[in-house]
Q: What sequence folds into this?
């Protein structure tokens, strides 16, 4: 829950910051037309980092959490706090849940790669049309 609240505050801060810096950013971007392509690529690379980094971080967390579930052969893990009554899975059912968590982590990494590829493609399309 704390992660969601912190993420919401960071997202709001980024939106407010972008709104305040939009005009100077646009002036910087258009100030030297010969460097427009390089600046656009840099801007999109920065955006890709901001979008993909949380996905990759969550994927890493899920991967290691799934590994711990598989090693303990219990879900939820012993001593782990839960917010409501939860059925305890042990043995093969817990291992299956751990594998599912690792599969979810792999899909999140794949999504991050696709998003980065889309940012790269969009940046290349914009730089081609800008020149």
A:
């Amino acid at each position: 829950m704390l992660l969601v609240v912190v993420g919401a505050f960071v997202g709001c801060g980024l939106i407010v910051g972008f709104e305040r810096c939009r005009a100077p950013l646009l002036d910087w971007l258009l100030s030297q037309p010969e460097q427009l392509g390089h600046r656009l690529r840099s801007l999109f690379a920065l955006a890709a980092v901001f979008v993909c980094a949380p996905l990759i971080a969550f994927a890493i967390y899920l991967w290691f959490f799934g590994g711990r579930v598989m090693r303990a052969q219990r879900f939820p893990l012993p001593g782990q706090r839960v917010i409501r009554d939860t059925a305890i899975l042990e043995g093969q059912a817990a291992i299956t849940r751990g594998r599912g968590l690792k599969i979810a982590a792999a899909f999140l990494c794949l999504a991050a790669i696709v998003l980065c590829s889309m940012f790269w493609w969009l940046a290349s399309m914009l730089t081609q049309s800008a020149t």
The first helix runs from residue 2 to 31. The longest strand covers residues 74-75. Residues 1-31 form one domain.
